[in-house]
Automatic annotation (TrEMBL):
<feature type="compositionally biased region" description="Basic and acidic residues">
    <location>
        <begin position="98"/>
        <end position="107"/>
    </location>
</feature>
<keyword id="KW-1133">Transmembrane helix</keyword>
<feature type="transmembrane region" description="Helical">
    <location>
        <begin position="207"/>
        <end position="229"/>
    </location>
</feature>
<keyword id="KW-0152">Cholesterol biosynthesis</keyword>
<feature type="transmembrane region" description="Helical">
    <location>
        <begin position="481"/>
        <end position="500"/>
    </location>
</feature>
<feature type="transmembrane region" description="Helical">
    <location>
        <begin position="521"/>
        <end position="542"/>
    </location>
</feature>
<dbReference type="GO" id="GO:0006695">
    <property type="term" value="P:cholesterol biosynthetic process"/>
</dbReference>
<dbReference type="Pfam" id="PF09465">
    <property type="entry name" value="LBR_tudor"/>
</dbReference>
<dbReference type="InterPro" id="IPR001171">
    <property type="entry name" value="ERG24_DHCR-like"/>
</dbReference>
<feature type="transmembrane region" description="Helical">
    <location>
        <begin position="325"/>
        <end position="344"/>
    </location>
</feature>
<keyword id="KW-0472">Membrane</keyword>
<feature type="transmembrane region" description="Helical">
    <location>
        <begin position="417"/>
        <end position="438"/>
    </location>
</feature>
<dbReference type="GO" id="GO:0005789">
    <property type="term" value="C:endoplasmic reticulum membrane"/>
</dbReference>
<feature type="compositionally biased region" description="Basic residues">
    <location>
        <begin position="74"/>
        <end position="93"/>
    </location>
</feature>
<keyword id="KW-0444">Lipid biosynthesis</keyword>
<dbReference type="InterPro" id="IPR018083">
    <property type="entry name" value="Sterol_reductase_CS"/>
</dbReference>
<dbReference type="GO" id="GO:0005637">
    <property type="term" value="C:nuclear inner membrane"/>
</dbReference>
Length: 614
């Protein structure tokens, strides 16, 4: 844990975010978790600054005296001085003194006049990091009355302190200032590296800590098996709990496990193909950026071609439906083996490669959340591969198998309208995720969470076997719907998808190029990190509009199953609980990261997911 450099109440010089100007501020608070100082400016404005953006007043005084003593004009005057003159310089005449003061005053006035222009450009073209999230984005924000401009314009009030700062930071380039800036940049890089090498332990334990994660390791597989067993019952009512358990020996079959391994390694082969572009992820704690090959959509096309070939040669895909429970058990066993392997190899990983959320020192907690952030075998990134490939593409394959099983079991020449809607809606969702694959690199799953049992089980078991619950339910419990009802459900899904995609695209475009003229209508609150928090558009409507779109789509996926049973709506209930948990997690993370700027954003956008409700 790095020691704090400045004490509470100390008067220092703080850099205004997005500029090179320093102002006199007073330290009011220091956050041990985010390592940010809360400072107060003379006009009452409070911001959270990094330690590298704060300097002591003595360093500024030293710079000022050094600059004046090494001025080229001063040196030339000393060399041309007559030997008969005093050694400590010469006096100016009264007219020269007046000219010097007038010139100095004119320079300050010119600087004061040009500073608002710079502020205007800072408000418009302030760089922002490309940090998009596909599922749970950190919100960007802004107000209608540009808060950033209002706050920065308050800094333009002429006073003695402003003139002193402007004298130190003339807008005219000088060699001496460039040299000092290079020295300061080197010092900043050194301080950043020193800070990043010190890794802290995970303090805030989620999911109920050690006891909660231990329970979840058993509860999550039991939930999956319970849902699948209930779908096979003639009356899948919650009152029929518990469902009849099959013999334990029937839950395992070596051939099924072999088919699952074949599927896993086939997707790994597609991942290794040299097709698709290679992009860099976000910087790690050591400053390094990992490279990722974006070819998930190509893998989906190749998988679709392989399934088409199997169907052409009349390969019996009904085998997956007949052994669905065994496939779920095989996937769960494989995810447990993979989790044990990941934890063992993480014990030898360097400190800077450990996950911020899985470095608590408690075995069970770190095993569940993931101890290592980006486990790799050569260039093969295990977490990134499992995030989108075997489970997400497998979800679509399972849905297709359920569609074929419905036709075979009920002797239908065409699948039911309900089954077509479920397959179409969820296919759109998966294709969207694979098409915008690069956006997953900025999600908390990649940047913050380690790869442990939670993600391994979620990617390989929960996603393919729980997300396909509606299709599996419709095979044994068909539900006929009319075309008007189907049209209404389709409109609902389209609304949810439009909110989900447009909100993510809006944020993505703003992160990539905030100065884009097409985004001129968006306004934002500046933060000490250099990023902007949007308070217009979708992100000014609610804090997590992408979550709102997710929930609307989840409801549309369940409605084709009818209202005879609550089981198909488990996914909606689960999704709401999941997103509320993620939202609370995002709130905590953003509050630590953005400080007072996040509090101002929450005041402007009070609703989190549901407008006027939550």
């Amino acid at each position: 844990m790095p020691n704090r450099k400045f004490a509470d109440g100390e008067v220092v010089m703080g850099r205004w975010p997005g500029s090179v100007l320093y102002y006199e501020v007073q330290v009011t608070h220091y956050d041990d978790v985010s390592h940010l100082y809360t400072v107060k400016y003379k006009d009452g404005t409070e911001l959270a600054l990094k330690e590298s953006d704060i300097r002591s007043q003595s360093s500024f005084k030293h710079r000022k005296s050094q600059s004046s003593s090494s001025s080229p004009s001063r040196k030339s005057r000393s060399r041309s001085r007559s030997p008969g003159r005093p050694a400590k310089g010469r006096r100016r005449s009264s007219s020269q003194s007046r000219e010097y003061k007038d010139d100095k005053k004119k320079t300050i006035q010119e600087t004061n006049l040009s500073l608002p222009v710079l502020v205007f450009f800072f408000c418009l073209f302030k760089p922002s990091e490309n940090n998009t999230r596909r599922y749970n984005g950190e919100p960007d924000s802004t107000e209608k009355n540009d808060t950033s401009c209002v706050i920065m314009e308050q800094k333009l009030k002429p006073d003695v302190e402003m003139e002193r700062v402007l004298e130190q930071y003339s807008l005219r380039p000088r060699k001496e200032e460039k040299k000092k800036e290079e020295i300061y940049s080197e010092k900043k890089v050194f301080e950043t590296k020193t800070f990043e090498k010190a890794s802290s332990k995970t303090k805030d334990l989620e999911f109920g800590g050690r006891i909660g994660t231990l329970i979840l390791i058993f509860f999550l597989p039991a939930t999956v098996f319970y849902l699948l067993l209930m779908c096979k019952q003639d009356d899948p009512s919650l009152l029929n709990f518990p469902p009849p358990l099959p013999p334990l020996e029937s839950l395992w079959e070596a051939r099924v496990f072999g088919v699952f391994l074949l599927w896993f390694f086939l997707q790994a082969l597609f991942y290794l193909l040299p097709i698709g572009k290679v992009v860099e992820g976000l910087p790690l704690s050591n400053g390094r950026k990992l490279q990722y090959r974006i070819n998930g959509f190509y893998a989906f096309i190749l998988t679709a071609a392989a399934i088409g070939i199997l169907l052409y040669f009349q390969f019996e895909l009904h085998y997956l439906y007949d052994h669905f429970m065994q496939f779920a058990v095989s996937a769960a066993a494989f995810s447990m083996i993979l989790s044990i392997f990941l934890y063992i190899r993480s014990l030898k990983a360097p400190e800077e490669e450990l996950a911020p959320s899985g470095n608590s020192g408690y075995f069970i907690y770190d095993f569940f959340t993931g101890h290592e952030l980006n486990p790799r075998i050569g260039s093969f990134d295990l977490k990134y591969f499992c995030e989108l490939r075997p489970g997400l593409i497998g979800w679509v394959v399972i849905n297709l198998v359920m569609l074929l099983a419905e036709m075979k079991i009920h002797n239908q020449s065409m699948p039911s309208l309900s089954m077509i809607l479920v397959n179409s809606f969820q296919l759109l969702y998966v294709v969207d995720a694979l098409w915008y694959e690069a956006t997953v690199l900025t999600t908390m799953d990649i940047t913050h969470d380690g790869f442990g049992f939670m993600l391994a089980f979620g990617d390989l078991v929960w996603v393919p076997f729980v997300y396909s619950l509606q299709a599996y339910y419709l095979v044994g419990h068909p539900n006929a719907i009319s075309w008007p009802i189907a049209a209404a459900i389709t409109v609902l899904n389209c609304i949810g998808y439009y909110i989900f995609r447009s909100a993510n695209s809006q944020k993505n475009n703003f992160r990539r190029n905030p100065s884009d003229p097409k985004l001129a209508y968006l306004k934002f609150i500046p933060t000490a990190t250099g990023k902007g928090l949007l308070v217009t558009g979708w992100w000014g409507f609610v804090r997590h509009p992408n979550y709102l779109g997710d929930i609307i789509m989840a409801l549309a996926w369940s409605l084709p199953c009818g209202f005879n049973n609550i089981l198909p709506y488990f996914y909606v209930i689960y999704f709401i609980c999941l997103l509320v948990h993620r939202e609370a997690r995002d709130e905590h993370h953003c509050k630590q990261k953005y400080g007072l700027a996040w509090e101002r954003y929450c005041q402007r956008v009070p609703y989190r997911i549901f407008p006027y409700i939550y």
